[in-house]
């Protein structure tokens, strides 16, 4: 499957944001990766996750990359902005996000995302 996706170019980014209390952030990071990011990695062209710890909250951001809105809809359903909450999200998140942001990827420079 890696060979198949290597020829496809990302044109769409789907951005999800969620916030936890700082004392739950480490546990949520692990849970989110296992229950949310791993399955997403099997469908998207690429996935990046971010965490920002601030006073009183930790914000998580997941960005997935897709060749088209149609390809994203195969994973996300007919409305790709609709949130698919993980089973334990209500336990961890300060509030449940109502939608995701979808943006067109215009250009990418350098070796962004290669670790």
Automatic annotation (TrEMBL):
It comes from the Bacteria. This is ABM domain-containing protein.
């Amino acid at each position: 499957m890696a060979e198949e996706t290597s020829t496809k170019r990302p044109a769409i980014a789907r951005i999800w944001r969620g916030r936890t209390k700082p004392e739950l952030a480490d546990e949520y990071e692990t849970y989110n990766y296992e229950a949310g990011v791993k399955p997403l990695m099997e469908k998207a062209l690429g996935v990046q996750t971010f965490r920002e710890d601030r006073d009183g909250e930790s914000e998580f951001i997941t960005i997935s990359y897709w060749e088209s809105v149609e390809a994203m809809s195969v994973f996300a359903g007919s409305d790709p902005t609709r949130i698919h909450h993980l089973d334990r999200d209500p336990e961890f998140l300060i509030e449940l996000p109502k939608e995701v942001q979808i943006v067109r990827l215009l250009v990418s420079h350098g070796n962004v995302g290669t670790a």
